[in-house]
Amino acid sequence: MTLERARTHGVAWQVDAWEQQGKLCIFVDGPKGPKTAVSWSSGGCGFDNTPGSAYFVNGWTPGAGDMDLAFGPLPSDATQVRVATREVIASKPLPSGAGLPHGRYWLFVWPSGWPNKADGKQVGPTPLNASGKPVAFTKF
């Protein structure tokens, strides 16, 4: 299931999600999807916040002047994610009826020079509810 499509530096890419052996997989890949390998593809299956695991992925957007990006799944009550001390981004619902677990996801492509003074310091992504209160992470 394609969650979203984008283009950076003239190169098309997309975010795809599916379930595999009971674990959620999310990948940033080329416009032909996850079955076609591209050198800048990034993603993972089985998101967890226990030691030795990861609850988000860092990667690159394609094209000249690659930009960093980060993404991952969230519990359904996490409507936003803090990515810097003064920057919070919105999350989006995972599509229902697409064989995906109930929840949300986030994607952040940071521009050159991020974070700046207005953003504050970069922090590990923190799931937040609509009131800005931290939300416990859920295994996916």
What does this protein structure show overall?
The protein is mostly beta strands and 140 residues long. Helices cover 0% and strands 45% of the residues. It has no helices and 11 strands. It has strands at residues 2-8, 11-20, 23-29, 42-45, 57-60, 68-74, 80-84, 87-90, 92-93, 104-109, 122-128. It has a 4-stranded antiparallel β-sheet, with no helix packed on it. The protein has a 4-stranded antiparallel β-sheet with strand order 5-6-10-9, with no helix packed on it. The chain starts with a strand and ends in a 12-residue tail after the last strand.
Poorly predicted regions are: none
The order of strands across the largest sheet is: 1-2-3-4
The helix count comes to 0
* Secondary-structure element pattern, one letter each: EEEEEEEEEEE
Distance between the termini: 16 Å
- Classify the secondary structure makeup into a structural class: mainly beta
* Overall helicity: under 10%
Mind describing the biggest β-sheet? 4 strands, antiparallel
Q: What fraction of residues sit in β-strands?
A: over 45%
**What does the overall shape look like?**
globular
Average pLDDT rating: 88
Q: Evaluate the radius of gyration.
A: 15 Å
The total count of strands amounts to: 11
